[in-house]
């Protein structure tokens, strides 16, 4: 509602909420619907035509990516006890793949949040793919040429 905003209109430095923080109390932990609606009115309109911009993919792709991230996280929760109870090559290579993918997606979010500009984003993404490929190759090499992830963790715990 307009009574929550100081005079000055959208985009004005004075268009911040006027309601005292002491009066809101626990409501500060969440964004009130009235303030969200006021912010939405002030936000610039998004184009509904033209090519998708960086980071603005389809909602279906984003939903599938989110589901994949959760599936890998749940898989890791299951692989940890499996690595302890049934150590072996299958669990070692599954851990190598799941840990690499989990780390790749996590660092991808760091890039999305903190790297700005077209060229730095492209450079960071290329670096991320190189790092992920080297991580997976290194873990597979460790599994094949050495004791494997499960046995290595068991050896560390026995120290």
TrEMBL record:
GO CC terms of this entry: mitochondrial inner membrane
GO molecular function: heme binding; metal ion binding; ubiquinone binding
Pfam families in the cross-refs: CybS
GO biological process, one term: tricarboxylic acid cycle
Keywords: Electron transport, Heme, Iron, Membrane, Metal-binding, Mitochondrion, Mitochondrion inner membrane, Transit peptide, Transmembrane, Transmembrane helix, Transport, Tricarboxylic acid cycle
Membrane topology designation: Multi-pass membrane protein
Gene3D superfamilies: Fumarate reductase/succinate dehydrogenase, transmembrane subunit
Ligand binding (heme b): 102
Pathway involvement of the protein, from the record: Carbohydrate metabolism; tricarboxylic acid cycle
Binding site for a ubiquinone: 114
Location(s), subcellular: Mitochondrion inner membrane
Protein family per UniProt: Belongs to the CybS family.
Assembly with partners or alone: Component of complex II composed of four subunits: the flavoprotein (FP) SDHA, iron-sulfur protein (IP) SDHB, and a cytochrome b560 composed of SDHC and SDHD.
Cited function: Membrane-anchoring subunit of succinate dehydrogenase (SDH) that is involved in complex II of the mitochondrial electron transport chain and is responsible for transferring electrons from succinate to ubiquinone (coenzyme Q). SDH also oxidizes malate to the non-canonical enol form of oxaloacetate, enol-oxaloacetate. Enol-oxaloacetate, which is a potent inhibitor of the succinate dehydrogenase activity, is further isomerized into keto-oxaloacetate.
Protein name in the entry: Succinate dehydrogenase [ubiquinone] cytochrome b small subunit
Originating gene: Sdhd
